[in-house]
Each structure stands twice: as structure tokens, then as C-alpha cells.
């Protein structure tokens, strides 16, 4: 199967279904009617770089400008997985200034959002319109419980369904033990043990996925390898991990979107270096649901589960039903999330203040002008 964005041959869709293999639905088509009437065509964004994006349309892949889409809110910037209304360029070999460009984004069904790494605490969308978030975790290293809890919060926050895939089973002494460990951290989440070397459970994973799937996890976890196994072809670059610590080398550098042979769409992503949560208070409650349930039985409604008398959470720790580590990580993630939220509020307050200042000075100038006129 040719890679849809590096293959320069003309786009021919064997199924004749156009965009449907990229996830276009009747519902989307219905919502698009007005855009179509305005001469725009639907496009799904595969990747964004340097003010341009690779997108796929009914008539093939295009490289389009993002110029028409401006928002001060980085959460509304176009990203991989977004559906857009595209103003087509003039074919062939568009006249200068008539290259295809995005005119609008369609509302997102789901979005994976983290806090950006920059000092100003913005949210950054990693992928949009995703149905399943595959959290890839390597069995070749001891399970990092805190990292998995973070990934789960990120996934639940997106509105998509999380699925934990424990990779590299062929390198693990006791995959079932790690699966049990992961299950204790992620009640209600499906966990699959896989290996691309032996092919273990790749068929099961294929059957579990429908719609749009994104692969998330640390560098070297085996995301692109898993992607290739699902694609049945080596479309995605993979790279060896470092011998001394098994860490990946950040082989994948861009998010990519490719159709799966049996239907559905796959988004591969670069390994996450840090996973900072953004506005994820609700999903944290979901990840640590059993602690929230225990807390209902604490004597004090505002119990901090420290040294208060009658704390049901501490009692559960004493009874060996809950690990202190898990409570500590829950607290830590909550603090982090609250901090990110407070910085965001400060930024929004700042933006509002600036806008107010601009409006005020505009009014002042207008009044001055009028005063001079009278
Ligand atoms: N033995 C074994 N090795 C695997 C398996 N899956 C992946 N690997 C190896 O793990 C290394 C990293 O795999 P990648 O697929 O590049 O990992 P990635 O998660 O995409 O990494 P980044 O792109 O850096 O984020 C490669 O050397 C793969 O061959 C597996 O099931 N078994
Ligand atoms: Mg990769
Ligand atoms: Zn308590």
C-alpha cells in the first residue's frame, strides 16, 4: 500500500468510497452541506507543519495553507485528525496565491489535549476526532505505574476510549503478571498483550479497533511497529532503543494519519517526553475512581486523606486495599493540574485585560477624534 502523503502517484481509491476510508460519515456530510454550497470541500488533516498542512480530500492528498484560520486560542489551531472545509486551489499547478487553503475547522468529536511545554501554559491538541486511544507500554521494562496513570488521565480527558496495549511480550518473562498489575491501575480499561515479533494478539487488536485510533506512549514503546503490524506494511519508520536503558530515540518526529486496510484510520505520534495534563480534573477522578468512592466514607467532607480521624482512604491503605503510591500520585497529578489551571486562568485574565485595554484606547481615540470634530 503506498503511503498517502509521500506517494506522488495520483490518488485512486479502490473502494471508490472517497473520504469514507478516512472516517468521513453521513453525519459529517450532512453538517458540511453549507460549506459545500459555498464551494468548499471536506478534508482531513494528516499533519501540520510550518503554516501548511497535509490533508486528504475526495480527490486526493493536498498541501494546504492555514492562512484563513486564526484564533488566539492554540486549542483551536488545526491539528492531525481535524476535519476541515478546504478552498480548493486551481488545478493544475495552482496560480500563485491560489493554493488550496483551509477555510474552517469542523467541530471536534474528541481531542487529546496536554499542557504545552512552553512557559505560557497553553493547551496543545495532539490529535482530534479520535475514537480509541491506544496507550502503548513496553513489557521490556518494569511497569511505570505513575506514567500509566498519567497516560490514562490524558486519554479519558479526550472523550475517546482508552485501550492499553502492552507491547514486546516476546521480551517479557511474565506478561500476565504485568497485565494484572496494569489492570489494578486501570479498572474498566481493556488491556491487550501483544508482540509484533510473534504476531501475538495483532488480530485481536485489529478486531477491537474501529473509527480513528491514535497510538500514544513513550519513545521506543513500539507504537510505529504496532502501527506497521496493523497496516500489514512497513509504512511507518521504526528505530532501535538504546541498549543501556531501553529508551527510544524519538524515531517518529511527526504525527501521521493513514487508513487501515480493514477500515478505520490510524494516527501515529512521536513518543511523549512529558505528559502534562491540561484541565483534566474530571478525568483524574475517573482514573482514581476507587479513591473517590472511598472518600465518600471519610468522616469529613473536605478530608484531605492525610491524618484526619475517620479517613476511609487511609483505612484502605492500612488494610492493604490501596497503595500509598497510588494515593500519592493522585495527589501529585491533582496539584499539577490545579497549577496548570491557575496559570491558564492567569493567561486568560491577562488576555481579557489586554483586550479591554485595546478597546478602551480605541474608544479614547474615537472620543478624541469626535471632540476635535465638534
Ligand atoms: N522484540 C520486540 N521488539 C519490538 C516489538 N515492537 C517494537 N519493537 C522494537 O522496539 C524498538 C522501538 O520501536 P518503535 O516502533 O520505533 O517505537 P515507537 O514507540 O514508535 O518510538 P518513537 O517513534 O521514538 O516514539 C524497535 O527496535 C522495534 O523493533 C516487539 O513486539 N518485540
Ligand atoms: Mg514511532
Ligand atoms: Zn479521607
From TrEMBL:
Lipid biosynthesis in keyword set: no
Organism: Nonomuraea roseoviolacea subsp. carminata
Family annotation (Pfam families): RsgA_GTPase
Gene3D superfamilies: P-loop containing nucleotide triphosphate hydrolases, Probable gtpase engc, domain 3
InterPro entries according to UniProt: G_CP_dom, P-loop_NTPase, Ribosome_biogen_GTPase_RsgA, RsgA_GTPase_dom
SUPFAM superfamilies with a match to the protein in the record: P-loop containing nucleoside triphosphate hydrolases
Cofactor detail note: Binds 1 zinc ion per subunit.
Biological classification of the source: Bacteria, Bacillati, Actinomycetota, Actinomycetes, Streptosporangiales
HAMAP family, per database record: GTPase_RsgA
Role noted for this protein: One of several proteins that assist in the late maturation steps of the functional core of the 30S ribosomal subunit. Helps release RbfA from mature subunits. May play a role in the assembly of ribosomal proteins into the subunit. Circularly permuted GTPase that catalyzes slow GTP hydrolysis, GTPase activity is stimulated by the 30S ribosomal subunit.
Domain of life, source organism: Bacteria
Residues binding Zn(2+), per UniProt: 298, 303, 305, 311
Protein's name according to its UniProt entry: Small ribosomal subunit biogenesis GTPase RsgA
GO function terms (MF aspect): hydrolase activity
